[in-house]
Amino acid sequence: MIDIILEAIRVVVVCAIFVIILAAGKKKGLSRESGWGYIRGGFALLLFGVVIDFSDNFEQLNSFLIVGDTIYQAFFEKVVGYLGGFVLIAIGFCSWLPKILSVSESQQKFEKVFESAPAPMIISDAETLKLVDVNKAAISLYEVDSKFEMIGKSLTELSFYQDLEEKDKYIVTPLLEKGFVRNLEIRARSAKGNPIHGLFSAEVVHLNQKPMILSSLIDISERKNAEEQIKISESLYRTLFNHIADPIFIFDKSTLKFLDVNQTALERYGYSLDEFRTMTPHQLHPSEELEKVNENIVSEDITYHEYSHVTRRGEIFIVEIHTTDFKYDGQDAWISIVRDITDRRKSEQALRQNEENYRRLFENVPDLYFELDANAVVTSINESFLKDYAYEPSDKIGHSFTNFIHPDDVETIMQGFLESMADHVD
What we know:
The protein is an alpha+beta fold.
């Protein structure tokens, strides 16, 4: 009775193994693997053998050829069932094991690369989105002490994403539709709440015959911070550039075409920025200055010069130009600051004219005219007086003006001079 029970248990066990093999082959796609058919057939023959072996416990089955305790039953049990089954299983494993070993070796290489990758990498279950494994770089980026603080939780549960709508729209949906996401800029946060700006990539892969999501995140926070600083700097530069009261021109060293001009230049000259970018500095000068402009540019002697400039409306004005080397978007360029000095030149001209008129009047007036310093010493005396009285300039210049005054009047006139000087000093 015990033998029958043990043999029945053996039948159930082999039958269960066979069913498991059939189910595994169907679910995991093993039926397409080399050698799997032999293994499945071998277990089928083993199941056949144990069933035949179990049947010899019942004498009423002896009338059948292959069941019951008969010579045919022994042949099918021992040779076909057991021997044939074990042979097929052996053939199957001989065909399948090399691939299993190769896969194992590839798995080890993958795990080594995964763990040592400089970029943070995560493996998630494609169905539950829970983390299965993370590498050292991911642990460091997320600012936790151990991978076990992350494994078993989804990135959403870890509060990794700053914007959940962004995650659903740009990560989850493309993964479901296309099976991958490439270089998506996302905003995330670490376990300590520190912001992370990264390039996120993910792809659905099969590991151990199971769909997984392999994700990587390249931290570009420093780059984004640098870009933000550049934007701020550019904004400050552009604000200063456009609010300087003098026209500013930036032009290419090789082509001499304008690359940029400030708002003052646009308003003063009457051209648009697009029009300026088709022009060169030559087009702002009258024709008689072009030779001088060319000579200075060729010799790169353009640090400081005075020119005339012509506006779109034909207005000509005198300018003072200061130029120096400049890098503009990586290009070698010149930057010129132009100052309108027309009014200054007019004032200087008027002053020179006034001085000439004064000097002409001073020299030709027939009366005595002289200039004194603060010590009442003569510094200049009119020419007509010298001629009329036959004096040499050295006779009077450098001497006290009291030499021209009668001694009785010196005290009175000197008192008036000192009072006049005191009024001017006050």
